[in-house]
Structures are given as C-alpha cells and as structure tokens.
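Journal club side-thread
Mid-discussion, someone asked how the predicted structure for our own chain would compare to the paper's figures. Pasting it here so we can look after the session.
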Amino acid sequence: MAKTYLGVWSTYWYTTNTGTPYSEEDFRGRWKFYYEQNQINLTSTITVEYYIQIYSSEYIDYGYIPPSSSKATVNGSSSTKSNNALNVSIAKGYSERLIGTATFTIQHDSDGKANLVFSGQWTMNGVTRKASHTWSLPDIQVASSISSNVSEQTLGNDIIFTIAPKEQSYVHVLKYKYGTSPETQFDTNVTTSSTWNPPLSLAQYVTDNTYSNATIYCYSYDGSVSDANYKGVKSINVKLIIPDSVVPTGTLSVSDDNITSTSEAGKVPSSWGIFVKGYSKLKFVATTTMAQSATLRGIKITACDGQVGTATPFVSPQAVGTSGTNLINTLEITDSRGRIGTASATTSIYDYENPSAILNVMRCNSDGTYNANGTNAKLTITYGISSLNNNNAKTYTIKYRVKGASSYTTYSSGTLSSYSGTLEITITNVTFSTGSTYEFLVVITDQFNSTEAPATMAYSRKPISCKKTTGVTFGRHAVDDGFNVYYDADFKMDLKKQGNNVLAATQFDNTTDNYIVLDNGLAICWWQETINVAVNTSWGNNGYLSNDVALSNFPITFASTPMVFKSLDNVGYAGLLASANATPASTTNPGSVKIFRASSATAQDYNVNIMAIGIIASS
C-alpha cells in the first residue's frame, strides 16, 4: 500500500494536545508521522519527518536559525537528526524548516494490531524541549498461512500446498509468479489443500539459469471470493528446477571448401565427391534451436582432426590432417542457461601420399633381352599412386639425354593402366651409343603432385676387351689402340720400360686359368662363372635380394688383396652387389656376391664376370 499520513506531534504539547507554550517567542519541534503496511509480513513502516519552528513577531528578510538537534524514539528504536545554523527569511509568526527524515518498522501481532509509542526531544542553544504520544495503528487484515510438501521441485512434477485457515469460513485463491512471468492463478476456492503441477512451459520465463524461486501467493477471503471479503495474502517460495531435458539442439553439415569444377591443380575436383587428406578444407555449417525461449550463448565446432571453430560457417584453416572412415565432427551448443546440446556429422577422409616411382634402365636387344653392348634401352618403372576411390589422375612421362646435356628429350607420355605396379618399356626407335652414358627421367603425375625418378644407363662395359691385336681395354668395349683402363687403377709398383716394350710377360695362361703375370710382378686374372640362385628376399623400396653366393678362388695367389671387379653378363633386369660383409675379397678369393632385381624371381643361372689386378705372391 502507499504511504499514509498518520498525524503530527509537537513540543508545544508534552503529553496531550492541549497546554501552554513555554514562551511565545520561543522555538518548538514538530514531528510528522506516516505509515505504510505490509499485509504479508504483518508490519508497518513508519516515516518520521523532523521540523524546527521559530517564532517571530514580524517578517525578517534574512533571519537566523541557530543549530539544533532532534531525537525521535519509536517503539524503542531511536534516530537523531541535526541542523547547522540557517540564514533564511522568517515570516511573522512561526516559520518551519525540515531538517531530516527517519524510518522505523513496527511488527503487528497475529491479529494484525499494533501501537506506535513515540517520545522525542529538541535541543537548541542549550535548551531542550520534549514531547511524547501513543497512536493505535490501523489493523492489518490477517490472511491464512500456507506451506508446501517440498522446498524445491522439477517442472512437470506435483507440489502439494497445505493451508491453515485463519478462520474456518475462509476460502483461498492461489497464484504463482516465476521468473519474468506475470502473477497467474492456478487454483481457487481452496479450503485447506491444493496440488499443483508446474508446467514445463514455465521454463520460458527463466532464460539465464536452470532454476529460480517461484513465489506462491495465498489470497484469503471470508466466505466467498470477492473484493469485499478480502482478508489478506501470504506467500512462500518454492525452488522450481528446469529439467535436464531442456537443452538446445542443432544440426551440423560438412562440405569441402577447397574444390574445383575444373582440373585446377592442388584442389579436389568437385566431381569426385570425396574428402582428401592434406587437400580438403572442411567447411561446417551449424543450425541451432533454443529450448523454452533461451538464447544462444555460443557454439564450438570440433573437426575430426582437432581443428576448432566458434562460428558458423566455419572453414578449417588447415587442410584436413587425418584419414579414415566415418570420422566424427562435433557441434556443441551453449544456451543462455549454460545448458549444452550436441550434434555431430561423420566424414570419410581418403588417405593421400605423393606418387612414388623407381626407375631401372639397362642396355638391351630390340626384343628387350639384356645385352651389355646393346644400343636399345629397357626401362622398368615401379610406381604407386593414391587411387582416391579410383578418381585420381595417373600419368607418366619418359625423358632421356646424353649425360651432361642441358635438357631432356621427351620420349613418350601416357596414362597408367593402374594405380600401382610395374611398367616395362623397351625403346627401339632411338639408338643409344655404346660409347655414351645416358640419363633417364620418369615423371609420375596425379591430381596434386608429380614425382621424378632418375636412372643412368652407362656406356657399354666389359671387364676386359681387345681390339684385335692392336689394343686392350679394361672396363668397356675396346675402341682405341693401345692399353686403356676405364677403372680406377692402383699400381703397387713402378711401371718399367724394357726395350721398345713397356712390359714383358714372364707367365701367361690364356687357355685354362686365364691369367697373366708381368715381369715386374703385376698379375691379372679373369674368368666367367655361372651361379644359380633365387632372388626373393625383400630389400625395402629397392627390390629383392638373393642370398650370398661364394665364388671360385683365383688361379694364382696375390701378395696382398688385389683390386677385384665383378659384373653380370647377359642377364636382364638384374644387378650385382659385392657382399663384403659376408665374405670379403682376399689374396686367394674374390669374395661373395648377391643378385638384386626389381621383382622377385625363382632360381636361375647368372653369369658373373670376375677380374683381379694385383702383385703376385713370391713363390
């Protein structure tokens, strides 16, 4: 209710509203009283205004009011107000000035009754004036009390209210107020009890928390519900909790933001319809729906590779860094209540690796069979390309040049028939000179990258070759007259000239053991030996190896370990490795060997050429 005027009391009267002033030309204090009643709490709030009055027999334009103080006591509680000296105009008679306000609370009894007991005093210039008085405050209508069976409840569950009627003739109206909801009636003509099921829709009135107190009002009426019969209202609070099921919902969709409708390099063609590790950039679009009038506080999108975004649409700044089937991307939605809802979308990311290629080249005949002196070339290309659901490009280009030339010549290009395997190409329409070394390059290209694999085809080599009777050559076919060495040579002793001949042989056997010993002790031996072995031990990305194979002893004994040369003759697609770690060369044996190939092979014959140069041992 609004503040209502109660009355005024002055030091002019001490205990009654009659009496004689202390002096006509004196001061007096006045207190004005107002009340405001709370029917629910059965209290009256008392407001007291403090006034000082000064008497003057004539008008004073600029009068003086000395400092003063006033104390008011209401039902045992006191408050003192004071004023400094005032220079104001004073009318003839009494002039009044407000110097302060105080409030007091008075508790009514269970029947709604209470008295205001007042005493006060004013002091000015050492003179004190007193006053006191008692009022009966207006009665407060007393309502019935209400209680509930629970102090908190989840929306959608019953609450039982019990009413203790102030009078047996009382009936009651029950209303609630929850959050921002209006005060709303949920039962009427209640005598002693009522059951209420607060609906889930009430959650719309509390959007910044997961619970709030509902105030339940019990309005009391005597006999029947009408304004004339109204007796008052009392209330209680019940904490109403919004169920955990009230959460935001949403959807999450995923697309590729790094696609092309053409063949633009470095992008995933849109026609593929797939995601590619290292190239696809995931684009997420989220939709959100708030529950029961909540508002959106924020979202969090976590991509399957851990990249995080907080807005929609969200494009991952880095290309997707993982691969797999049905990888999960998640959406977290936080509403104004702090509740979190989730959604997800799955993506299958295809793994991708750069193309791989290994190139082996050998001299050959026109039919592709190995020939160390051949002028044709046979290329064996071992390759691998990520198929990307059979969408990826798979092309090759073959180039060659004479070693040292500034540029390559393109021999051919085309599309590979599969995404991994071995491609064999014999080049017969180009003549490769036996006296030159050639460099080959194969380029394997897919939608995103190219890989180059180089290989070298050397000039035609032989351990030893004669030009009829005019020259001997070590390391390649004899072309020039005289003594020619295409290997690194380390002569352990000085070369000596005897007559017109540089050297003279002291021992020679070219029929059975194939060796020669010069008169300065330099010895050379050579032979071809056939071995039979399977090549089936994996050598990683390099191909396959055979086991170690021991070779026959030298026909002579050297003073120290000689230089040993070993090569294969007339065997296609194979190479020779010296196995020094197994059986190294010695003064009597050239050491063991291994055969290697690009692909595995069953046991077959291989012709091994052996040549050794060193100083013969003393006999």
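Post-session note: The radius of gyration is 57 Å.
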